[in-house]
Amino acid sequence: MDLTLRHPRPEDLAAAGAVVVAEDLAFAGEVVLGEQFIAQAWERPALDLDRDAWVIEGTDGAIIAVAHVEDEESGVTDSFTCVHPDHAALEVRTALWDAAEARARERHADHPRPRIRHASNATDEEEGAG
After folding, report:
1. Nearest to 56 by CA among 91, 102, 32, 21
2. 3-state helix/strand/coil string of 98-130
3. 3-state secondary structure at position 50
4. How many CA atoms lie within 13 Å of 38's alpha carbon, on the beta-carbon side?
5. How many CA atoms are closer than 13 Å to the CA of 86, on its beta-carbon side?
6. pLDDT tens-digit map of 24-62
7. Which among 57, 60, 48, 77 has a CA at the least distance from the CA of 6?
8. I need a surface site. Which of 3, 25, 45, 52 has the fewest CB within 10 A?
């Protein structure tokens, strides 16, 4: 699969929000987080879009996944990842997790025991049970 992992731009908000809505509908049957969740995350002063957030573009250039990290407590980074259900594949989510984990290590390089908590939905296929 030919994918592009990159940091988002403000003009990506609607497409990133659409990914969240699609995943909400697939897993919860209703919109739980939606575009507003991404908008609020991207507007937080502590979140640097050029370092703390990512999107994945599919082969057609459409955004198929979104992620960001934030610190809630000392030495702990929380990551949020969302993949459009039409593009759910372990390699997509793994690319986001890898980026989030690398950023968490960078953010907490001086912490003796840094941790990361992932918030993510995953299909059986993504979990390897399929």
Report:
1. 91
2. HHHHHHHHHHCCCCCCCEEEEEECCCHHHHCCC
3. helix
4. 26
5. 10
6. 999 889 888 888 999 999 999 989 999 999 999 998 999
7. 57
8. 45
